[in-house]
Structure formats: structure tokens, C-alpha cells
């Protein structure tokens, strides 16, 4: 076990509860474990990429992530033998460029950035076929968690990841990156949907700053993504290729993806922002 941290639990609808029903939960942080975490990691991968997961060789991706247990963190509540509720790690595009999952991921990123010419050109220069032969390495940040996990687990996970990257560099391991590529999920709301969601949010939550979005637009599933975006040099939203056209009266959220490119020199500033914004209660 890496360390243990107390955090505030969530209520049944996935949001944080009011002060009268707060529950303290101990979250334990572990290194990835190939014997225990494989199935949960596949589920989190499918949650992250939604229907596009079939394109991305998720089984190979899980195997690859679990093949480097000294870099990355899982979060559990019931000890080492339990399923992880959150996962964070990095993968080197250059070192693993011949793995099926990394080949598929590179094609996926380049394809879904094509509507943003500047971002697409930058990615071509970082992880395109010619760029993969250079000595400038780029990392994919795999970060996903169950939707009702509190954001307060994020700062320690990223602090540990930064430490592990530095220790790997000190040991001459290939973790000296120039950029980090984040992939996350977003959802889109019309102005009418946003107004309806806002009106349905309990007043106690709105008073505590946990209000639903107001006005139409694109919103992040995870609040820390807003901070990542502020430290990114490029951001692009895209639709999942498997998504069906969404009719006006459809139930559920209109979900899409977002990719963000963060220069490695911005990582300490990003972690500082996490620490300041999402300190444990």
C-alpha cells in the first residue's frame, strides 16, 4: 500500500451530500496489480472510451498498463484484494509504439483531432510515424474513476505519479516526456436541458457550489478536467464514432470525448492547482 487518505463520501445520486449526511471513507492507494486489477481496468477503459473502446484494443491496453506496476496508482476502499475504483498511470507512445493498443490509440487521436488543424498538426509532429522515431517522448495519461468517487482523491494520485515519473527518470527509465496527452469525457446540453438539470439540483447543493450547469454547452464529467484544460496548450472535443444521432426527446446525456495536450513543464503547476482546489475536507 502506498498511503491512506480520508475523504468525504458521496450520496446515492452521485453528488456530494449535505453536511448532515457526510460519511468519512478511507481510500487506500496501491500500485497496479496484474492479478487483481485486470477486469476493473477494462471496465474503466470501456467507461472512458464508451462505444469507441472496441477500436482501441482494450485488452492489450489493460495488459500494457499492468505490465508497469511501479508507475501508476489505483484507489480502493476494501484493501488490496478489492477492485479499484480509480486508476491513474502514463504510457510512453514511443517505447510502446508497436503494441496494438498504442497503434490504435495514436490513430484514434490523430483521426479525432482532424477537425482542429493546429492540434492535429501538433500531434502529427509528436506521435506521427516520423515523430515516433525521434528522441522526444510523449505520454498518454490514463485517468478514469467511478463517477461517484470524490475529486479529493485526485491531488494525491497526481503527486504520486509525478514522484514515480521522477524516480523512473533517476533510474534511467524512459519516462522523460515533453508532453502529456489526456483523454476524457464530456457531455453536451442544450440551454433547455441545462435549465431543467439546474432546477432539479437540490438547493443545498447549489448553495455549496455543486450546482448543475446553466446555459447550453459542453461540460466535463470530472471537475479536475477544467484545471487540466487551463494548463493545456491544445484542446479538442470530438464525437464518439459509435454514437447514434440524438433526437430532441432522447433520454440520457449526449456524451463525447475531449483530448488535451499538456507540456510537461506545466505538470507541477497543474498538481499545485489540484492541491489548492481539491484539498481533502
Automatic annotation (TrEMBL):
Cross-referenced Pfam families: BCCIP (PF13862)
TM spans (from-to): none
Coiled coil: none
Gene Ontology annotations for the cellular component aspect, listed alphabetically: nucleus
Leader sequence residues: none
Subcellular location: Nucleus
Key words, A-Z: Nucleus, Protein transport, Transport
GO BP terms: protein transport
InterPro entries reported for this sequence: BCP1_family (IPR025602)
Similarity section: Belongs to the BCP1 family.
Function: Involved in nuclear export, actin cytoskeleton organization and vesicular transport.
Protein name: Protein BCP1
Protein species of origin: Meripilus lineatus
Lineage: Eukaryota, Fungi, Dikarya, Basidiomycota, Agaricomycotina
Amino acid at each position: 500500500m502506498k498511503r491512506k487518505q480520508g475523504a468525504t463520501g458521496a450520496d446515492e445520486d452521485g453528488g456530494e451530500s449535505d453536511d448532515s449526511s457526510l460519511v468519512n471513507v478511507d481510500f487506500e492507494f496501491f500500485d497496479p496489480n496484474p492479478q487483481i486489477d485486470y477486469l476493473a481496468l477494462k471496465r474503466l477503459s470501456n467507461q472512458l472510451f464508451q462505444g469507441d473502446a472496441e477500436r482501441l484494443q482494450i485488452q492489450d491496453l489493460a495488459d500494457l498498463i499492468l505490465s508497469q506496476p511501479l508507475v501508476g496508482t489505483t484507489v480502493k476502499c476494501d484493501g488490496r484484494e478489492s477492485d479499484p475504483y480509480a486508476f491513474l498511470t502514463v504510457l510512453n507512445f514511443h517505447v510502446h509504439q508497436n503494441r496494438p493498443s498504442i497503434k490504435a490509440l495514436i490513430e484514434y487521436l490523430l483521426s479525432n483531432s482532424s477537425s482542429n488543424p493546429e492540434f492535429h498538426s501538433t500531434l502529427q509532429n509528436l506521435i506521427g510515424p516520423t515523430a515516433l522515431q525521434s528522441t522526444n517522448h510523449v505520454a498518454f495519461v490514463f485517468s478514469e474513476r467511478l463517477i461517484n468517487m470524490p475529486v479529493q482523491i485526485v491531488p494525491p494520485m497526481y503527486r504520486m505519479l509525478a514522484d514515480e515519473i521522477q524516480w523512473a527518470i533517476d533510474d534511467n527509465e524512459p519516462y522523460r516526456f515533453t508532453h502529456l496527452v489526456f483523454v476524457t469525457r464530456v457531455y453536451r446540453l442544450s440551454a433547455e436541458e441545462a435549465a431543467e438539470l439546474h432546477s432539479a439540483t437540490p438547493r443545498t447543493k447549489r448553495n455549496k457550489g455543486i450546482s448543475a450547469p446553466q446555459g447550453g454547452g459542453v461540460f466535463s464529467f470530472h471537475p479536475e478536467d477544467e484545471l487540466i484544460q487551463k494548463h493545456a496548450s491544445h484542446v479538442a472535443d470530438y464525437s464518439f464514432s459509435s454514437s447514434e444521432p440524438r433526437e430532441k426527446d432522447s433520454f440520457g446525456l449526449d456524451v463525447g470525448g475531449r483530448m488535451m495536450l499538456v507540456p510537461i513543464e506545466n505538470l507541477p503547476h497543474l498538481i499545485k492547482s489540484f492541491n489548492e482546489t481539491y484539498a481533502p475536507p
